[in-house]
C-alpha cells in the first residue's frame, strides 16, 4: 500500500486532485488507516491512467464516471465522437487530435500496454551539469528547460561526456502545474557548476515509444514495490533519455529508462 504522496508520484496526479477524485466518488483510497491517512494500491493505477487519459480528451469528470465501466467498444465509440469534434477546433487542438488518433489505432490493433520488466538497478555516481526549475509538466516548458540547460552548458565551456541525459523529479508528491524538475547532462572534467550525482539503488524499467504513454512503466514499478515491501521509495525519481527526443523524428523509437531510488525499510 502507498501513502497519498507516494501514490501521487507514481501516477503523476497531484494529491489535491486525488482527494477531489475521492470526494466525487471517482477514485477512493483502498484503505483509510486508524490515523485517518489514505492508502492506495498498485492495482488502482490502471483506473487513474484511464481517468487522466479521458481527461486529456476533454471529457468532463461526470462523463468519465459513465465511460469507465463500459466495454472497450463502447468506450471507443465515445472517443470517436469526441475525436470528430476535436478535428473541427483551432490549431491549438492539433497535437491532441494526433494523440487521440494514435490511441484509437492502438485500441483497434494492439493491446494498450507494453510488456515491462522492473528490476533492481544500481545507478552509478557521475559528474553532471544541470538546471533546476519548478515548471508545468508539459512539453513546451520541459523543452525550454532542456534548451536552457544546453545553452548554459555551452556558455560555461563544458563538454558532455556522451552519456544519456537525465531528468530528475524532486519532492514527496507530484504537482503537474508546478513540478520540481532538474535536467542533468553528464559532463567531463571538473569545473564550476559541475557536481556529482550520487549513485543509488533503484527500481528501474525501460519505456519504448512516445513519452505521453510512459505511465505504464510507472505502473510496473508500483507493482514491483508492492511485491517487495522491504523497500521504500526515496523522494526523488529519474528518467534517463536513452534516445534523446531531439535526435529522432519517430516517437515510436524513443527509449526512456525510468528509475525510482529505493532503500531498505527500517525494522520495527
Describe the structure in your own words.
- There is one protein chain.
- The chain has 268 residues and is α+β, with helices and mostly antiparallel strands.
- The chain contains eight helices and twelve strands.
- The chain has helices spanning 4-11, 15-23, 45-56, 61-67, 72-86, 94-109, 139-155, 215-227; strands at residues 2-3, 31-32, 38-40, 119-123, 126-135, 166-170, 179-186, 195-197, 200-208, 231-233, 236-241, 255-264.
- Strands 4, 5, 6, 7, 8, 9, 10, 11 and 12 form a nine-stranded antiparallel beta sheet that branches.
- A hairpin with an 8-residue loop joins strand 6 and strand 7 (179-186).
- Helix 5 packs antiparallel against helix 6 (94-109).
- The longest helix has 17 residues, at 139-155.
- The radius of gyration is 20 Å and the shape is globular.
- The mean pLDDT is 88.
Compute the number of helices.
8
User: Share of helix among residues?
Assistant: 25-40%
| Overall residue-averaged pLDDT value | 88
Contiguous uncertain segments of 5+ residues: none
State the shape: globular
- The succession of helices and strands, N to C, reads EHHEEHHHHEEHEEEEHEEE
Structural class: alpha+beta
Report the sheet with the most strands, covering strand number, pairing sense and barrel closure: 9 strands, antiparallel
Q: Calculate the terminal CA-CA distance, rounded to whole Å.
A: 17 Å
In total, the number of strands is 12
Sheet-strand content, in percent, reads 15-25%
Which oligomeric form is depicted?
single chain
What is the gyration radius calculated from CA atoms? 20 Å
